[in-house]
Specification:
alpha+beta; Beta-Lactamase; Arc Repressor Mutant, subunit A; 3 domains; five-stranded antiparallel β-sheet; globular
Length: 377
């Protein structure tokens, strides 16, 4: 029997291979599902405004119910409230709403229960103001609710999946064959460096050379890749050293290395180990242990609703009801939109009044307008 550490290392390696070859994702998700302890798994994105679900890769999902989720039940799915959670935090149904309340939702009664799904462990991988990417593992009734072991193993896996997704996004390629890995680097808009265990640069693409010449974010010191910011330099070197210890080691330090926190020039580095899996050939050919992808980060601007949720310390259930009141109006309309009972809506509405100091639904709508930034475009 393989130990948990051995299983994690092998799965992490497969995850990073999938960062370069998306065709591997379905097989990788099967392994992740087995390690975490679920019976179905999906990698996709939810648009919180349009209520659209974009399913990228799945395993163990019934195609008929997957289509039903896209067409009808995504607007009732409580995991839409994940947008209010930070990336990488593992969230079960009980973290989103009281479980007894969940059992009374239309989503559970008409979509989850017929399939035997009783719970899920999910985590945000990346998010913008209106949408987010997520990894979800569903749990069957025979396995019971999400437990501590499932939560812990999910927490071990999520940083690797998030890093792989971000690297795939950074290189913006459908597929990269490792045999031609280096040849593909010069065509990337992101700066990319192949480095050894000590941070020495063994290859840089054109964008990478341009960044070194600029010197404000990264520079070359005695042929080593060094961040201009001293703290970032130490973190980057540690992440590169971890890559030489294997795929599992690089996940412990977080997904991205922040190279610059300047609002005008906020840059991130993502580390892809080259010590195992299909990536190993590229590493051996250039004495490299890691590929370092560097790109400018998108503005991390929280949505207006997210700001209000944090300000008034609203629960996920209260947040969903608040957002629905702003979008669709009265109690009956909110209950129908969320697939919950009117009694449940009234309960959350009363709590919203208590927390915000408002007395009417129209006051809540006006409060949202009052928090809007007049300079936001």
């Amino acid at each position: 029997m393989e130990s948990e550490a051995e299983l994690l290392s092998g799965i992490a390696g497969a995850i990073y291979d999938a960062a370069l070859d998306p065709m591997l994702w379905c097989g990788v998700l099967e392994r992740v599902m087995g390690f975490v302890g679920g019976q179905s798994i999906g990698l996709g994105a939810i648009d919180s405004v349009s209520k659209e679900l974009n399913v990228c890769y799945t395993f163990g999902c019934d195609p008929q119910y997957l289509q039903l989720q896209r067409d009808t039940y995504i607007k009732f799915d409580p995991t839409a409230a994940l947008i209010f959670f930070p990336p990488e935090q593992v969230v079960s149904i009980a973290d989103l709403m009281p479980y007894e309340e969940y059992l009374d939702t239309r989503f559970y009664r008409e979509w989850a229960q017929p399939q035997g799904w009783v719970d899920s462990a999910s985590a945000v991988l990346d998010k913008s103001v209106t949408s987010f990417a997520l990894l979800s593992v569903y749990r069957h009734a025979a396995s019971g609710l999400v437990d501590d072991l499932m939560r812990r193993r999910m927490q071990l896996i999520v940083p690797h999946v998030r890093r792989a997704v971000m690297i795939g996004k950074a290189i913006d390629l459908k597929s990269v064959k490792t045999a031609a890995f280096v040849d593909a680097l010069d065509g990337l808009s992101a700066a990319l460096f192949l480095v050894d265990a000590f941070g020495r640069i063994v290859h840089a693409n054109i964008s990478g050379h341009d960044m070194l010449a600029d010197g404000r974010i990264l520079r070359s010191a005695q042929d080593s890749l060094v961040a201009a910011d001293p703290q970032a330099a130490r973190t980057l070197l540690g992440a590169i050293a971890a890559a030489s210890d294997g795929d599992a080691a690089v996940g412990a330090g977080g997904t991205a290395v922040v190279l610059s926190t300047s609002p005008e020039r906020r840059w991130l580095a993502h580390i892809l180990p080259l010590t195992s899996g299909a990536r190993r050939r590229a590493g051996i050919a250039h004495s490299a242990v890691a590929a370092v992808f560097v790109h400018k980060a998108a503005l991390d601007t929280p949505s207006l609703m997210e700001t209000i949720v944090k300000l008034y310390r609203l629960t996920p259930s209260e947040s969903r009801v608040f957002a629905a009141i702003v979008d669709v109006g009265g109690v009956s309309a909110v209950a129908e939109a969320l697939g919950i009972s009117e009694a449940t809506v009234k309960t959350h509405l009363q709590r919203l009044f208590e927390k915000t100091g408002m007395r009417r639904q129209t006051d809540l709508v006006k409060m949202v307008a009052g928090h809007a930034n007049p300079l936001r475009t």
